[in-house]
Amino acid sequence: MAERYKFSVTYEPATMRAAVRSYLFRALTVEHTWMSTAAISIVVIVIGFAVFARDFGFIAGLYGGLLMALLIFIVVIGWMHWRGMSAKLARMKEPRADFVLSDEALEVSTDSASSRFAWERIFQIWKFRQVWLLMLDINQFMTLPLAGVPPEALQFLDQKIQPRPFRAA
């Protein structure tokens, strides 16, 4: 296996928070667009009609509760991702990972673990300003902070991962 690129990244808490926020935003607005938009729109429209009609009865309360439940659900999902990410960082003695890109696979090593991912295992790259999220499954991703990563390595990574839909469960 011939190495093409080798580099190290540091996981900063601010970058990891940005990764979680970016993940939530994209998951809600791009990946589940029609579902999220339809659900939120219906609830907001019904609440709007109830407020306009000054009817604060059962229906307005029901839809207000649905909107609150939806918002709480979004917050809980973000919190769960942050907790999972924080736990992984806490297990590391040093919040650093070494990446090796070859023609066959991506290898990631930290002081606590090492993994090798064939390129076919990575379904998509979600690109953001500070991080790229390498999507391994619908709600599973590997975070790649961009600070210090050679541009040629990012270009190689982008070429190796061909976006495709997630497999059916």
Counting DSSP E segments of at least 2 residues, the number of strands comes to 7
Count of DSSP-assigned helices: 4
Roughly how many Å is the radius of gyration?
Answer: 20 Å
Mean pLDDT: 82
Report how far apart the termini are.
32 Å
CATH class of the largest domain: Mainly Beta
What fraction, in percent, of the residue positions are helical? 40-55%
Share in β-strands: 15-25%
| Strand adjacency order, main sheet | 1-2-3-4
CATH topology of the largest domain: PH-domain like
Overall 3D form: elongated
Q: How many structurally independent domains?
A: 2
Q: Are there runs of 5+ residues with pLDDT below 50, and where?
A: none
Overall structural class, as computed from helix and strand content, comes to alpha+beta
Main β-sheet: number of strands, strand sense, barrel status? 4 strands, antiparallel
N to C succession of SSEs: EHHHEEEEEEH
Describe this structure in words.
With 169 residues, the protein is an alpha+beta fold. It folds into two domains: 3-11 and 94-160, PH-domain like; 17-89. The protein is built from four helices and seven strands; from the N terminus they run E-H-H-H-E-E-E-E-E-E-H. It has helices at residues 13-31, 33-52, 58-91, 151-160, and strands spanning 3-10, 96-102, 105-109, 114-118, 124-127, 131-137, 140-145. A four-stranded antiparallel sheet has the order 1-2-3-4, covered by helices on one side. The chain has a three-stranded antiparallel sheet with strand order 5-6-7, covered by helices on one side. Helix 1 (13-31) packs across helix 2 and helix 1 crosses helix 3 (58-91). The two termini are 32 Å apart. The model has no long low-confidence stretch (mean pLDDT 82).
